[in-house]
Amino acid sequence: MNKKIVLCLAVFLLLSMVISFYAMAEDQAFLDWCKSIKDKFDGTTINIAAHTHPSIDAFREMTPEFTKLTGINVRWDTMNELMLRDKEMMEFASHTGVYDVVMVDCVWMGEFATKGIIINLDKYIQDPNSTPAWYDYEGIIPAYREGLAKWDGKTYALVTAGQTNLLGYRKDLFEKYGIDPASITSYDKFMELCKFFNGKEPGLYGNAFRGQRGHNVLVTWFTYLYPFGGRLFDEEGKWNVVINSEDAIKSLEYLIQLSKYSPPGFENYNSEEQCAAVARGDVALALDVSACPPYYEPEGSMARGKMGYLPPPAGPKGDFAANAGWLAGISSDSKKQDAAWAFMIYMTSPQKVKDFLAVGGDINRTATFSDSEVLASKPYAKPTLEALGKAYNLIKAGVPHWRPPIPEWSKIGEILGYEVNSALIGEKSAKDALDKAAADITALMKEKGYYNK
Amino acid sequence: MDTIKKVKRGKSVTPWIAPSIIVLLLITILPTLFLFYLSLNSWELATPWDTRKLVWLKNFIDDIKDEQFQNSLVVTMKYVVVVVLLEFVFGLIIAAFIKGQNPGMRIFMIVALILPMTLTPSVAGLIWRSNFHPVAGVVNYFLSSLFGLKINWYSKEYALLSTMIVDIWQWTPFTSLILFSGMEAVSQDCYEAAMIDGASSFKVLTRITIPLLKPVILIVLLMRIMDALKMFDVVFVMTEGGPGNTTELLSLNIYRIGFFHTGYLGRASSIAVILLILVTILSQILIRSFGAREEGKG
Predict the structure, then answer these.
(1) Cβ separation of B256 and A280 shorter than 8 Å?
(2) Res. B298 pLDDT band, cuts 50 70 90
(3) Distance in Å, alpha carbon of A412 to nearest chain B alpha carbon
(4) Which of A43, A159, A191, A429 has the greatest number of CB atoms lying within 10 Å of its CB?
């Protein structure tokens, strides 16, 4: 018996040593790479166009160490996500070459790739000198790597903040009223609880969501659209617009009903304001993207340490979640593309995952989900993994993209974002708004030649 | 040859004003001509220049048919009429009030009035966006504490009003100061004569102050109408034109169509041309109506 224990211990120790040596060798390889980068690019300055987001805050925190190790200076130009696209397009239109790294919403991928705003990264990924083995490119979550970063079979970006949906709830309120959060398995139950908590305590509302016209309200509505059976197009490739189907109308009516249990002003809420409503302790529930938790519970927040997280509930016609996120690409006008690539792989490397998560970054690598340390310190890690399973359900159901990243998306988003917001504020009925949106999107797709292909 | 002779004799002015004409040509006239040219084309942002297509007046026809453009036109008109009128009335009252104060109080009031104007509009927009926050804003805090009122300033009913309040808050000091300086230039004898004749304060205002202030009033109204027609930053920061399109002024409509997730630069240019024509027509009407009255008086 003793011999067996000793043998087990010996094997365990041996394995630990092998793993440690392997990790040390990898770390050494990473440090050697940093040194080689410093030899090549010491004193170089790269400029980055970025959006306000927890992942960007995290990268900024990590930047001084990056500069110390590689000698590359980084200038950040951070702005609201909606202004970012305009800024990047304008810089490209005038070919200023100001930015080297540009952050890209996954849904802009088609437009940015076809217009040539960002470069094809395959040459870097396939070159072992540019992408050493320790980077473990295959370790990036496949849904993000294959589903978000590619256009027309080519890779144009690296994922910096992969996102799905998460349902945040106030643990203290659920405990106080004896409600089991695990009971939120359907959207009916979600609505019932939003109604229950609305006004239950002074200044408390059921839920908060982003209702601002355009991108924000669209991200909110798409969370409900698919589980209710709605679709934007019948099929990618055929492009018949079905956004005014009965199911889609029901999903919008559901959102309109939900708005009755939201704080006043929701119709103008962007991401920051939605997060602030949760952080102020104004709401009991919030269903949004998985990047939100660091903004829900910042230091000094009324909700700090009181939030629990769940994957989104199942809808009447499917158990789906978002597959979306932010990526980093290299500007085609950049004169420092190699230094930009070095920055991108440093920040998204497995060696920096824990640093990234510690300062509010998102989970982008598969291995992170099996790291017990991460699972213990980040209560949203496990629900995020479950939600990703629901995102995969959508792909299995024949919808490869939560929002199709075609070059026309921005215009489609503008049309839909306006109509959905109009319905939310009571200017139009859900049916009228979606009928108008369907007609306008069909006209746009026709104008762009989608039905002649 | 003649010009050289004139220059030598010091009579020709052309060489002296040429640099300013060249600068003006480069920074205002050429971009405006380019705007006109762009408005006749269909061209999308970040696509090669060669892909543009001459569509003549199609952009203008599309604008006129577009419900959102029509709405923006109405919203802009409401905005301009309300803010300019109230800024003028409040400005006149404040100017008359300052005039009646002692020198120390006058300096204090002038300094206090200058403060809102020194704020960058985007900063003013940000401050007031927080102030008008329906749940956490200071405006609703006072309204609910004093009157038990809680207004949703972000709603379709109040969003436009909230942006108007900010404009009035920021630019009434401007009208006050200009009108006050105009009042200071009016001879004291007129007021003394009116007082001897027993004129009431209202009569002094309508029969002496306002008629004598006409040139100043014209400048104030012109500047404020032009500024209000072009208003962008405060409204963009506060509401981004929403909810729906209840606060989408023409300038925001131009930005949304030209840049904000769409990129139709031809269409945006055509709306910019319409705005330019509108500003020019309104200013001309104002100048002519004031000018005609001045001539009639003479």
Answers:
(1) no
(2) very low
(3) 9
(4) A159
Residues of B in Cβ contact (< 8 Å) with A202 = none
Residue of A nearest to B239 (CA): A268
pTM of the full structure: 0.86
| Domain interval for residue A443 | 165-320+408-447
Q: What is the fold of B67-297?
A: MetI-like fold (1.10.3720)
- Same domain flag for A295 and A226: yes
Residues A14 and A56 in one domain: yes
Q: Would you call B47 and A213 a contact, using CB atoms and an 8 Å cutoff? A: no
Q: Which of B279, B117, B295, B289 is nearest to B218 (CA)?
A: B289
Alpha carbon distances (Å) from A430 to A251, A254, A267, A414: 9, 10, 15, 17
* ipTM rounded to 2 decimals: 0.81
CB B154 within 8 A of CB B134: yes
Q: Are residues A209 and A93 in the same domain?
A: no
- Quick one: tokens of B215? 């040139």
Count of CB contacts below 8 A, A vs B? 94
Query: Looking at chain A from residue 237 to 276, which residues have their Cβ under 8 Å from any Cβ of chain B?
Result: 263-265, 267-268, 276
Length reported for chain A: 453
The 3-state secondary structure of A145-200 reads: HHHCCEECCEECCEEEEEECEEEEEEHHHHHHCCCCHHHCCEHHHHHHHHHHHCCC
By Cβ distance, the residue of B134, B260, B261 closest to A265 is B134
Q: Do A354 and A416 sit in the same domain of this protein?
A: no
For A215-257, what is each residue's pLDDT tens digit? 999 999 999 999 999 999 998 888 999 999 999 999 999 999 9
Per-residue pLDDT tens digits for B50-107: 899 999 999 999 999 999 999 999 999 999 999 999 999 999 999 999 988 999 999 9
